[in-house]
Each structure stands twice: as structure tokens, then as C-alpha cells.
Design goal:
Blueprint lengths: L1 E4 L7 E9 L4 E7 L5 E7 L4 E9 L9 E9 L7 H4 L10 E2 L3 E10 L1 E3 L11 H4 L7 E3 L1 H7 L10 E3 L1 H6 L1 E2 L11 E20 L5 E19 L11
Parallel strand pairs: 1-7, 6-10, 8-14, 12-13
Antiparallel strand pairs: 1-2, 2-3, 3-4, 4-5, 5-6, 9-10, 9-11, 13-14
């Protein structure tokens, strides 16, 4: 468990857990954001897939109880150190607040298709377990699936194609909360600290050896289709 901050003045500090699993060759990053959302991201390095699960609590002021779970499946972009190196990370001083060296900006990820969770294990065996509470809200795109699978057309049964509805839908924030119409929801989130590359140094004899890690931060805004604006209450204009 490490303490993480954006690094700017008055930025919130939160705890983040990062771990590596050599058996499955995967890396897990977990935290609860300052806004109260739970984020669980698993990078499956073996299959080059990233699964990100967001658990968003209901707005009690608006009479919403419980929570919503959204799951997003994207292709791995190579911006993480190997699993073996992650397992060796150590926090020497528990009170230290970590701030990333390099911010890699914000990516807007369009997710016009939803996935059938029970069949999506063909992408990564982690998906059926991680996304089990998001059977109707697990999303991706044809482009991302094409990057993961050599021939995604061979697995049409995993996709619930909502592209036409997605193209025709308006942003949720532009509609009344009581509207029954499909709309595009935006869910922003940032991982403010993760080990993105290994550092190498040369010894006096000229031999190269690993001598540390470089840390990065990045933000992602996922856009996806929901049944009505009440399912996306935080995204108001």
C-alpha cells in the first residue's frame, strides 16, 4: 500500500495498492479515488489486455442507494514494467507520498459496444471474474478488440453491437435526469502513480544494469451508452 498524490497544491492524498502475480503474469492496481469511486485495474500482460472496473456509489442526496459497476476492456499499450519487477517494489517509508515523474495526459476512450461477460474469457480469463457484477455494463470498441484479437470477426458472439445507437445518442448531461432515452455517459478517472518503465545505468566497467523505475500518471475518460441519464448522474452539463 502506497500513498499517492497528483502533486499539485491542495491535491488529495489517497492510498493505492499495486501487486504483481507471476502465475497469471498480471499486474493489479486498486484504489478508492478522492471522489469515492472504487477502481480496480488488472493488466493481463500475457494476453495484452487491460480490464478496468469502476464501482460508483449512488448519490444519497438524490435518493440513490447502492452502487453501479462499469467494466472496460482495452488493449495493453506497453506502459507498465514487467510483472516480475512489480513484485519487487517496496515502500521503505510508509508515510511517504508518491508523485509521478511524468504525466502522460488524458485519453478519451470511446466504447460503442458492450460485451457478453460470460463469453469474454476469450479475450482474457480475468474478465468473467472481474466483470461479474457488470454483466450489462462491460464495454469496449471494435478497434480495441481488433488490437487484442488477430481476427475479432471470428468471435462475434462476445459482442452486443450498439454502434448505431451510440452514434445517434446525445450526451447524458444534455438530457433531463427523468428522460427514458439512451445517452452517452462519460466517466473520468486518473491513476496518479504507476511504474511505467525500468531505468538502466552503466557501471564503471561499462556494463548496463537495472537501477530503478520511472513513474508515470495518466487519465482516461471512458464514454459509453447507458439506458437513461439517471444511470450517469455525475455527468451533468
Amino acid at each position: 500500500m502506497i500513498n499517492v498524490s497528483k502533486g499539485t497544491e491542495q491535491a488529495s492524498v489517497y492510498q493505492q495498492h499495486i501487486s504483481g502475480n507471476l502465475t497469471t503474469n498480471s499486474v493489479k492496481i486498486q484504489f478508492i479515488s478522492p471522489q469515492g469511486d472504487s477502481v480496480n485495474q488488472v493488466t493481463d500482460l500475457k494476453n495484452r489486455v487491460v480490464i478496468t472496473v469502476y464501482t460508483v456509489p449512488g448519490e444519497q442526496d438524490l435518493g440513490q442507494d447502492g452502487y453501479q459497476v462499469f467494466c472496460f476492456v482495452t488493449a495493453y499499450t506497453g506502459d507498465l514494467i514487467p510483472t516480475e519487477a512489480v513484485t519487487k517494489l517496496r515502500q521503505k517509508h510508509s508515510a511517504t507520498v508518491r508523485v509521478a515523474e511524468d504525466h502522460r495526459g488524458t485519453v478519451v476512450q470511446e466504447n460503442p459496444v458492450s460485451l457478453f461477460v460470460v463469453k469474454a474469457g476469450v479475450l482474457s480469463p480475468h474478465i468473467p471474474t472481474l466483470c461479474r457484477e457488470a454483466k450489462g455494463s462491460t464495454y469496449s470498441s471494435v478497434a480495441e478488440l481488433a488490437r487484442i484479437l488477430k481476427n475479432p470477426t471470428r468471435h462475434p458472439s462476445i459482442i452486443n453491437n450498439n454502434i448505431k445507437q451510440y452514434q445517434d445518442a446525445k450526451r447524458c448531461g444534455e438530457q433531463s435526469v427523468s428522460s427514458p432515452t439512451n445517452c452517452i455517459c462519460s466517466l473520468p478517472s486518473c491513476i496518479w502513480w504507476f511504474p511505467c518503465t525500468l531505468k538502466y545505468c552503466r557501471s564503471a566497467s561499462g556494463e548496463e544494469h537495472r537501477c530503478g523505475i520511472r513513474t508515470c500518471s495518466k487519465c482516461t475518460t471512458h464514454r459509453f451508452l447507458v439506458e437513461n441519464p439517471s444511470a450517469c448522474i455525475w455527468d451533468r452539463s
